[in-house]
Amino acid sequence: MTSPTLSGSPASAGAGTGDAELRDSLDPLATFPSRFVPSAEVVAYLDGNSLGRPLKVTKDRFGSFIEQQWGSRLIRSWDEEWFELPLTLGDRLGALTLGAAAGQTVVADSTTVMLYKLIRAAVDARPDRTEIVLDDDNFPTDRFIIEGIARERGLTVRYITVDKRYGVTTDQVSETVSDATALLVVSHVAYRSGYLADMQEITAAAHSAGALVLWDLCHSAGVIPTELDAWGVDLAVGCTYKYLNGGPGSPAFGYVASRLQTEIEQPIWGWMGAADVFGMRVEYQPAPGMRRFISGTPPVVGMLAMQDMLDLIDEAGMDAIRAKSIELTEAVLSFFDEKLAPLGVELASPRDSAFRGSHVTIRHESFKAVNEVLWENGVIPDFRNPDGLRIGLSPLSTTFSELRVGLEAIVEAMTHG
């Protein structure tokens, strides 16, 4: 792949928002936004990369769950479905969105806990190595957890310094990892810039030094097609409340390649991860397969909503979702060139869609105040300190017309707000 650029030729006029209604009418995914719960208070929701909208059908799923599985079947539902749900749901999520064969994905704890479990397991599996490598603009949770684990295990954290408008490159990884590196941790899509890292090449570069790699998929799961198995990925963690629309606090997923499942040992031993869950054994013996990466009782209620979103993803197809994501972000770039750049706004995301996820970040010193005005008027982007505004596009719930309303509101707030 060539290097990403921020400068260069402006986006084509045809990719803009001026023909939003026409583009909506021609959109192959045009029927999908109507399946989400509308908000009477919001006229443009541009923050699907933080919290996805709920689906209308999920109301029925919750009702059925309360009346039947929980209300009628009660504890018997553990035997009938709930006990296996973290694994069956993980397998479906892996097959539809991750390129992962069955038996390698589990839906379990929060993102923070899943990151801790898999990072600790990975570094403990490389006891002769002394370093964890990550970039200095990774999400705070990733950095905090790694610093904590390094303190626990007496390891060194080596940071890759990145341009915050981009993210980690293969060359940077090759220059940094060594025979001292136990684990490399990279976000597939950078939370700040939306930069899309080259998963296949970076994984290969880390493996050439004998290091394991963990990918944070929080900003790509459900919107960027991946091939974890084919690309030789070792470990991955991702949340489910963004593009998987699981709702606030819905549990994260973890992926562990089958070749590593008996090599690494997760540190939080709980009864649900034991080989004989109801044996009440004196000593802990991990279960075979991905069950060993479960700790306590799974958050079953938190796994309900994402099942409906997986149905939608299955119907639409990841390739079509990615295609619309690119069209939406291209529309943002076209609008930026025409109306935001003349106002002194800076682009802080790659122009090349091959290096861009499903959000675009723009910068201006006024954006903290602008964001407050926008939120008061029902336009919801996402502000990131110190001066960034993220325009997050969720392809199955976002229309081109909605995007146009939101972008024009930014101009209005800057010029008259």
TrEMBL record:
Sorted UniProt keywords: Hydrolase, Pyridine nucleotide biosynthesis, Pyridoxal phosphate
Family matches, as InterPro entries: Aminotrans_V_dom, Kynureninase, PyrdxlP-dep_Trfase, PyrdxlP-dep_Trfase_major, PyrdxlP-dep_Trfase_small
Residue ranges, annotated region (Disordered): 1-20
Pfam families: Aminotran_5
Residue ranges of domain Aminotransferase class V in the record: 100-338
GO MF terms held by the record: kynureninase activity
EC number(s) from the headed UniProt entry: 3.7.1.3
UniProt pathway: Cofactor biosynthesis; NAD(+) biosynthesis; quinolinate from L-kynurenine: step 2/3; Amino-acid degradation; L-kynurenine degradation; L-alanine and anthranilate from L-kynurenine: step 1/1
Cofactor or coenzyme needed: pyridoxal 5'-phosphate
Composition-biased stretches (Low complexity): 1-14
Reactions catalysed according to its record: 3-hydroxy-L-kynurenine + H2O = 3-hydroxyanthranilate + L-alanine + H(+); L-kynurenine + H2O = anthranilate + L-alanine + H(+)
Subunit structure: Homodimer.
Family note: Belongs to the kynureninase family.
Function per UniProt: Catalyzes the cleavage of L-kynurenine (L-Kyn) and L-3-hydroxykynurenine (L-3OHKyn) into anthranilic acid (AA) and 3-hydroxyanthranilic acid (3-OHAA), respectively.
PANTHER family per the UniProt record, alphabetical: KYNURENINASE
Protein name: Kynureninase
Organism whose genome encodes this protein: Subtercola frigoramans
